Input
Amino acid sequence: MAIYEAGEMYLLTIYLLYQKGMKKVRAIDVCREINRSKPSVSIALSQLKEEDYISVTNGKIDLKEKGIDVAKRVLSRREAVSKMFEKIGVDKEISKKDACKIEHVISDEACEAIQKFIGE
Output
């Protein structure tokens, strides 16, 4: 089953929280990070768990291999689009905000072309 945009965002959020040095990411941490309600996050996490993107043990959320792959792919897209926007003269903060919106819909082919364009 293909991952949906919101699912990508949850996986990326979990991934980034661990990258920031959190030892134990819980649902409440995800709620705070993306400003969503506990019920919304719980539903999304249940779906991600059912689809084998994450595991949850004693409240601790762990990304499984395919969850990590999705998070890294989305982050790579975000960084490529943001860098491209900056390269063509868009303000850094606007570049980040716009890239966050585009990262879920851009094709692999377009992302690869952007990465070549920016020299990565």
